[in-house]
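Two proteins were folded this term; both appear here.
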Amino acid sequence: MTFLELVTKLFGNKAQKDMRAIQPVVDKIKAEYEKIDKLSNDELRAYSASLMAKVAERVADKKARIAELRASIEELEIDKREKVYNEIDKLEKEIKESYKAVLDEILPEAYAIVKSTARRFAENEQVVVTANDMDKDLAADPRFDFVEIDGDKAIYFNHWVAGGNEITWDMIHYDVQLFGGVVLHQGKIAEMATGEGKTLVATLPVFLNAMTHEGVHVVTVNDYLAKRDSEWNGPLYMFHGLTVDCIDKYKPNSDERRKAYACDITFGTNNEFGFDYLRDNMATSTLDLVQRGHNFAIVDEVDSVLIDDARTPLIISGPVPKGEDQMYDEYKHRVELLVRTQTTLTTKLLTEAKAKMPSEDAKVREEGELALFRAWKGMPKSKALIKFLSEPGNKVRLQKNRRVLPPGE
């Protein structure tokens, strides 16, 4: 027996250790399922709503404080804004930590809810609940064929069109899917053979992390799978009030795509997610952005997306026609000239400000204050300017000109 075989026999391999660590979580899920599956359909939805409320309550104070800080920024002096932004960054980090803690706490209940929902759809042609506003909106939307309203009831059917084909929901989570769902929530890779229900596994961590309403991205390798999976699994999420869409259905930088990103759960291909991210980084206005903050993502076929298809960035960084014609060399001297001109002008303006601001003539003082404002706009990090602003009263006079700008400024 080799040393490696001896160690494995004594201590087990990594897979066995991981399974032993996750087994207690799976046992908790199954215990919660025994209780949750006895609830009525309305009680099941109320239970999931209570978990979402619990998640929101855990970060409510921090979010309110961030909103308060953002509203006050414009009224603050320049040198005090950095402190506020640092506090906002700290609060946002704390919110992420709070989300992680509360999601880990409610994971067994959330996974049990998903399993119970899947069981109800698999065993019943119709799942009837008391209709709410979202049920009515879904029933009125021509894109969805799985729900209709009858009086004060919403009837969810267990068959609908996904990927152009009529499907009937017939899947229920087994232990292997529960194991995989825990692994994915932990940010790890779950390797599963064909037929072990990879699509079903994803419903667990997607549902759990969507409870924050901060957005979950489900990344697939092609647009057919993105559209099919959004339509296939969508009804399970929508049954509990979560919004779902697929970015590949809409044109880049369109309002429809922006709304898809605003959903609780957003499906799409790695290429479209990637290029939307690049386009957002090149946007000149926040109105042109389509994505919101990145919260949680599930990558389907991760080996293909992150290895086989990782050539996508080469489209941007690869060779270009006439690569020997470097625009850097062409424009370098122009940029240098522009910087020198800007430095000369701001230095002149600062000199003018220093000369005119002490004047007893009000008009001359105003001219000096305006020159100071222009110098600050042209080169705010100039050491000479910063030193001048540190002198008593100068920063206040700069602030006055920031709030009341002359025409054309």
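Next, the second protein.
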Amino acid sequence: MDRVKVIISNNQKKVKIPTGIRLLIRRCCHAVLEMEEFDGNAEVSVSFVDNEQIHELNKLHRNIDRETDVLSFPLGENGEYDINHDTGAKLLGDIVISAEKAVEQAELYNHPLQREIGFLTVHSMLHLLGYDHEDGGIEAVHMREKEEQVLTQIGLKRNDSYYMEDE
């Protein structure tokens, strides 16, 4: 991998995006491409939206009538990508993160918001590169292992347990 350009936009006003999140997202994108030995320059777009906006997108593009945490819109297929003719970079696609859902899930799983946004970014980057978990099985396990490998590498190792503390 040569260079990755990550274009980040905040299209919501419900959650204040903490300092350092933009750098974290860039690190996550870079780490996934490095792990996957991605060849060439790459470009990816990451947008923060609220639950209402992601609900609309989920309904429009996936015919699922509810909010979700993250959506991936790949621009490539089977390793073939559109090219930005100005830069020569491969256009990987768009990642849309619900900032509200990320806060909810960070609280639910009892980990920092940075860990949740890092996870959602890595998860979505793997989707942009062709990974899928929808059918479960070994593909889902393989994708999960890759997510944890990247998150551990950048210092966002998950908690050692899956249980939630009682309030």
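The two ends are 45 Å apart (CA to CA). The longest strand covers residues 90-98. These notes refer to the second protein only.
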